[in-house]
Amino acid sequence: METAEFIETLRRNGTLLADAAERAGLDAAVPPCPDWRVRDLVRHQGTVHRWATRFVAEGRMRPEPITAETPADDRELLGWFRDGHERLVNALETAPEDLECWYFLRADSPLGFWARRQAHETAVHRVDAEIAAGRGPSPVDPAFAADGIDELLSGFHTRPKSRVRTEAPGTLRVRAVDLPAGRADWLARLSADPLVVEHAGEGAADCTVSGTAGDLYLALWNRAPYEKLQVSGDISLVELWRRTGAVT
Which CATH superfamily is 142-244 part of? Predict the structure, then answer.
């Protein structure tokens, strides 16, 4: 996907998140994040948006804590969120293509990284807000979903801090059935070290999880159950993922 597509997806999902949070009410529970109420979700995502904006708008070159001043009055919270979301979208839209700033996953450019990361960050938490509001999540575009699966597998869980590890090595194949063969097919090698991930070719895996890209996206980000997916082989690898693969 192109950077402009990620920015537009970020714009849309931020609006959907705020609308869902308003419907749910700030006191509503957030089932995918059991310790949170909607106010916590809104504060978290609004803080992340402002944190990301600092790197994009100011070209900051070193990592910084994820912090921002949040409203003391709940009545101001959604307006604060919408304002921060708009500022992030504007910063990404007006940033130069050769932007230089800090970023933390492999990417073709810092600008591309921040557009992609914030699009997925906001999409996942939009799902949280919609679930809190008592509605099924809005559909996830298959191409965007496949990209998010790739970011999760090949980005987050190949880093040293990933907890997806096992003393008994195994292979987990993830395959999206609604996209052309080869575009959305991953093989993750699990061991006591961080994942090694490659695009899968022909051949068997110890466990295969398949489904639509949207269903896989939600399940692998631990935002939906696995009932809509087809799981074959060693189910303990799926259970390992569910226990250790969460990213807030």
Answer: SCP2 sterol-binding domain (3.30.1050.10)
Residue type, 100: E
pTM over 0.85: yes
Would you call 234 helix, strand, or coil by DSSP? coil
Alpha-carbon dihedral sign for residues 55, 58, 64, 69: negative
Can you read off the two tokens belonging to residue 24? 């749910």
Domain 3-132 has CATH 1.10.357.10: no
Q: How many CA atoms lie within 13 A of 146 on its CB side?
A: 19
Contact 83, 104 (CB under 8 A): no
Largest CA distance in the chain: 56
pLDDT per residue as tens digits for the range 29-86: 999 999 999 999 999 999 999 999 999 999 999 999 999 999 999 999 999 999 999 9
DSSP letters of 190-229?
ESSSSPEEEE--SS--SEEEEE-HHHHHHHHTTSS-STTS
